[in-house]
Amino acid sequence: MAKSDNGTRGLGRLMIIGGGEDRSEGKEILTRFVELCGGPQASIAIVTAASTLHEEMREIYDRAFAELGVTRRPALALKNREMANDQACAEKIYECDGIFMTGGDQKRLMAVIGGTLVAAAMHRALREHGTCIGGTSAGASAMSEHMLSDGKSGGLPQKGTTQVGAGLGFLRRVMIDQHFSERQRLGRLLSAIAANPYLLGVGIDENTALIVELNSGLEVLGQGAVTIIDGREVMSNLPDVSTADPVELINVRMHLLRPGFRYSVHGEEQQGRKVSPALEQIIPIVTNFHQ
Amino acid sequence: MAKSDNGTRGLGRLMIIGGGEDRSEGKEILTRFVELCGGPQASIAIVTAASTLHEEMREIYDRAFAELGVTRRPALALKNREMANDQACAEKIYECDGIFMTGGDQKRLMAVIGGTLVAAAMHRALREHGTCIGGTSAGASAMSEHMLSDGKSGGLPQKGTTQVGAGLGFLRRVMIDQHFSERQRLGRLLSAIAANPYLLGVGIDENTALIVELNSGLEVLGQGAVTIIDGREVMSNLPDVSTADPVELINVRMHLLRPGFRYSVHGEEQQGRKVSPALEQIIPIVTNFHQ
Q1: B236 pLDDT higher than 50
Q2: How many CB atoms lie within 10 A of CB A174?
Q3: What pLDDT is stored for residue B266 in this prediction?
Q4: Among A86, A87, A234, B72, which residue has the least CB neighbours within 10 Å?
């Protein structure tokens, strides 16, 4: 396993995927995930706890990672909390170079692994030996402390129409949404951010990934966009209107990042382009800098 | 006709409707249009030049305004440029208290009336005796100097996929889009604003209207939202990418105004709520203040 050379950076990466990533053709995103785990010699665990179709989900990703040359793909059934609280299982998770959380339902994922020994082992693996944690769709939503767990698609923001729950907490001040452009989820993310302006909204499109290098940098790859909603200066009527009423939002800042975007707070990877101060200011928040 | 009591305010209003307004039931928006024209005693001209279905379009609005008690609904056929350059027709338009432009195709509307005597008469009526000019769908898009004339719906911003043309110029520094949430047009408006950051994007939903009181104020009514895109501080890769490439946008400011929103630069109509400086700053631009 790759050990960090100092205590402040390079400690683990998250790959947050908006669902629908290519698993059979070029596999751009999964290929990069394997690289971030250390290449084909890495051991990669597949966590299917978000789904009820454990075998089917496992098979899809097991085949994809096998096709990418990964031979160590430990079988770790996490179908219920008993399994997720099994000490041996937690130790196996901790030893992995990569952990990949599939789609399904983020509420189910959290109900099964939230607060368990396995969840604690994932945190330790991420922070102690740079394990890469990937998640797609439901597995993406669960990455942050505050999780968008449910909400209406396709509309404008409405008070009280998005539900929030406790996520895994790898990131602390963001709220993630997935299938973002495809399912027209801007309205529900704006609702969530209007109600929780302390958080940054991060909407990730299908077959698109945001790589977060903790305390360090961001990168986007894939086909769509990563939409960041910064509501810290928003003025909203939310406190004054009733449930299901339309929400007015003044002064949302929005950033639309595209594949190829790459930024490091340490400055080595900026591609020579000037970065907006408004974006530079939020990158430390997204990457959990100094937390 | 209502004459202005001084030279700086109250000179004409625009009602910019995002299409699909209620024309048969409560008619909230059209009722307000009639009020802004001066009530049932007003004379209201219906301009169908955006459409090829002149009689059908005229009949729909003629019936709606009749049901609202308007008896003076002068018949003004504007099927081609000859008609739009007819002196008698232009004089009739100038005398009206209200002018309503129906939907259809904004390119057709401009090809027929752009630069004609009728268009000039509309400008004079708006500025000299406070005529209210309404437009829905295509009729909304044509209100501004720079007109979004075509573009792909439903996607993320892509370079070169929106077309811009010369509009009627009642507003100068905005670009209007309509059927905004319903047809998922955020992407195309962002494309247009990335290419023209001097302009503010104004996206209006169906059955929703933005009332612009020139040099003075804004109001929103109806059912959806008015989305304002302020790209003046945007950093974008647009100059550096090829046609049809994805566009990255950093630091878009967005305001989502809702029915009930009302603001006057003269301060009498702010409903007691504090207004964000970011919004206050752009209202003079939208209302053509001091131009």
Answers
A1: yes
A2: 25
A3: 76
A4: A87
